[in-house]
Design a protein that fits this description.
By secondary structure, the protein is an alpha/beta fold. Helix content is 26%, strand content 22%. The chain is built from eleven helices and 15 strands. The strands form two sheets. A 13-stranded mixed beta sheet has the order 3-4-5-6-7-8-9-10-11-12-13-14-15. The chain has a two-stranded antiparallel ribbon with strand order 1-2. α10 links the parallel β9 and β10. The longest helix has 13 residues. The chain is globular, with a radius of gyration of 20 Å. The termini are far apart.
Length: 375
Amino acid sequence: MKPRYVTRLEQVEHLEEHLTDEERHRLEHVEETFPFRSNDYYLSLINLDDPHDPIRKIVIPDPREMDQIGSLDPSSEQRYTVVHGLQHKYPQTALLLVSDECGGICRFCFRKRLFLETDREVATDIPRCMEYIRTHPEITNVLLTGGDPLALSTKRLERIIRELREIPHVQIIRIGSKIPAYNPHRILNDPLLMQVIKRYSSENKRIYIMAHFNHPNELTRESVEALDELQKAGAIVVNQTPLIQGVNHSPFVLSELLRRLSFVGVSPYYVFQCRPTIGNQFFTIPVERSYQIVHHAFARCSGLAKRARYIMSHHSGKVEVVGTTPEYIFMKYHQAAHAENASNFMAFSRNPTATWFDDYLHHVIDYIPKRDWIF
């Protein structure tokens, strides 16, 4: 089975039957600003009779996206771009944008600027990117992202992987992909892809698939089979998801997602705070409520299902929320863009309306640099 891709809402079967003329007009307006893309496999998971269907919220445009609050580059990725399409924010990790196409366009995408009519940010000079990686021996991990690397042809993807494997200090190659959820047939119908994974994911140098399952309904028979094929080929599969209003904001839904992932051998890796990207405001849950949702979900999970960390991908680093009291919220840098911040521990006054790290910076109570820790 090869899913049929659609790029216009008018191509979505039976959708118009569930819309008023006004709703259709408003969605067309959104579509003109923020592109739509999906396929008939993924669309078949939507119950169109349910206006609150979580898969619908993931992929079908919403008029509230026209709220222009936020930024097109909320994590200041441009600041860390060292070669066109290559970011180097953390010493050990380089991020290589290899595609500006996805199996579908998530409505809460933090990198939606790639799908707008702006200058292309994907790597256009792969040899130059490889040379940068080659001359920076501190880089042990390279994350292939975009867009979605699995939207590339397998032959093109293999060329990139092969070149990375020729660099001795690159031990881990990560492939960030929502294709296992959006289009598992891309994996199931391509034995060459499995051969590539098997060839370049050895016992000493693994390929990691950073999957993006946001809701349990995405874990279909086909997607689980695709995950199994990737694992059999030697890839290590982990999952990351933002916390999204209307999709997985319930601790019962989130725990079900984390549990089912662990049942099929996929380790939960990160639960992200939804980034303040333009058009994402209505998906965003306040940080302190998000923390409670995540940890109420963890309470329903085994240890294997709650290995994820609750993270904000701020321009200064990955900020982990580690606890609260009635008066304070505590955070630390899980990853820091600047060495002086690494593992720093921070205490802030509670701010129930805060949706991002910046909202706390004028509420600092204490800041404990790593050098002052007592062991």
